[in-house]
Amino acid sequence: MPVKKLNINSDNENRRLDNYLMNRLKNIPKTNIYKMIRKGEIRVNSKRIKPLYKLKSGDEIRLPPFINIDSTSNSNEYYSDKFLKDFKKNILFSNSNYLVINKPYGLSVHGGTATKSNLISIIRKIYNYENIDLCHRIDKHTSGCIVVSLNKKANISFNRCLLKNEVQKVYKAIVKGSIGNDIEIENELFSRNHKTKSSLSYFSPIKKLKKSTLIQVKIETGRTHQIRKHANSINHPILNDYKYGDDKYNKLMNDLVNNRMYLHSFIISFNDTNGALISCEAPLDDSFNDAINKLS
């Protein structure tokens, strides 16, 4: 069997060899990686090298022939060719830096101990890029726009846009009760590290429904569960939000509609690494449209 080779580009320049390999060869135990480096089974530019070696653009890493690069760089999850072909229909935009995907509700964005099928593993099966990563997150039960970067530079660029509030996000939701006017909600919310941060959302009614309102939500900040918390704070919780919602309302509505959460990331706009505007709109799926029709 021939040896396997990995070529280093500018995305991974200055990364430590051991950290790079642990990220690239996810299914190989860390102790095995260090052992292969120590024994010279893993070499850089045909030379023995230390684990702390800083990679340079143009370096060539030689791996033992028994390592399957394809299986280690992607998830072990099996997705049929038909599934992957059908999933590509959810891709709203693609270039060499980013994908914008209309994520189906119920699909986690990343894996976990209790989560097998997930967005990032699917994308890594479809695209043969080394540094595919999430640019931001949306909840498992939220559908719609989510951005995935295809290289480190793009991921860093998107995060800079987030820090400068240059990423525009618009959602659609079905909420309890009647909302007749625009509502601005500004308050302090707890973040993931349990610190309070300011949050700002704008709710605008689109259509009155049975015991509900279809609304559009524009957020100026992106705090954890911001829209769901804000909707609950004004007594207009999102339909089928089982964490912040109204159980009695959910039960009543579920006689008419699918029991999914009715929150959808409708529009996302941000700048590409060269400053060009990327703006995508994710159409509502059949279950969301069906609920609007049944509640009209």
UniProtKB/TrEMBL annotation:
Residue ranges annotated as coiled coil are none
Query: Biological process GO terms, please?
Result: enzyme-directed rRNA pseudouridine synthesis
Question: Which E.C. number(s) belong to this protein?
Answer: 5.4.99.24
GO molecular function, one example? 23S rRNA pseudouridine(955/2504/2580) synthase activity
Q: Keyword check for Plastid, yes or no.
A: no
Domain RNA-binding S4 span(s) in chain numbering: 15-77
InterPro entries tied to this protein: PsdUridine_synth_cat_dom_sf, PsdUridine_synth_RluA-like_CS, PsdUridine_synth_RsuA/RluA, RluA_PseudoU_synthase, S4_RNA-bd, S4_RNA-bd_sf
The reaction(s) annotated as catalysed by this protein in its Swiss-Prot or TrEMBL entry are: uridine(955/2504/2580) in 23S rRNA = pseudouridine(955/2504/2580) in 23S rRNA
Question: Pfam families, per this entry?
Answer: PseudoU_synth_2, S4
Query: What SUPFAM superfamilies does UniProt report for this protein, alphabetically?
Result: Alpha-L RNA-binding motif, Pseudouridine synthase
Q: Which UniProt keyword terms apply here?
A: Isomerase, RNA-binding, rRNA processing
**Keyword RNA-binding listed:** yes
Q: What class of enzyme is it?
A: isomerase
Q: What does this protein do?
A: Responsible for synthesis of pseudouridine from uracil at positions 955, 2504 and 2580 in 23S ribosomal RNA.
Family as reported in the entry's similarity comment: Belongs to the pseudouridine synthase RluA family.
Q: What is this protein called?
A: Ribosomal large subunit pseudouridine synthase C
